[in-house]
């Protein structure tokens, strides 16, 4: 039985057409359609979230703000600069430092780090295109994340291919 639930959410599709820095790149029209679908899925299937940890990039913050609007109750949100351009190992450090009183946490960050983190935690490659969710069950405190394989509870991108449920191996 999992003691913790980690929800990995890759930011929604961003707009590459403007002359803005990567950090300030906004969501594309497709991203503006994707983000609320992710939030609606979270509201229906996860319910209560204790904490959101979000990259400072505009596209990640916008994704979460839109998705969070679909929830009945908004969790506290922490913008963590380590989430931007982070490697899987750097994201693992973020997870290991999560407060143990928070049992369900969503991490809204970028590729390739988020795909690498999913694989690092589960031992399984999980494709993470924009707006994909990976819901992972972890045993023990957050500080033990990655020391034993996490359980893949669901993965996919709402609504077309979600949820793809995995069975424990």
TrEMBL record:
Cross-referenced CDD domains: HP_PGM_like
Transmembrane segments annotated in the record for this chain: none
Superkingdom classification of source: Bacteria
One Pfam family of this chain: His_Phos_1
PANTHER family the UniProt entry points to: OS09G0287300 PROTEIN
This protein's name: Histidine phosphatase family protein
Organism: Cryobacterium glucosi
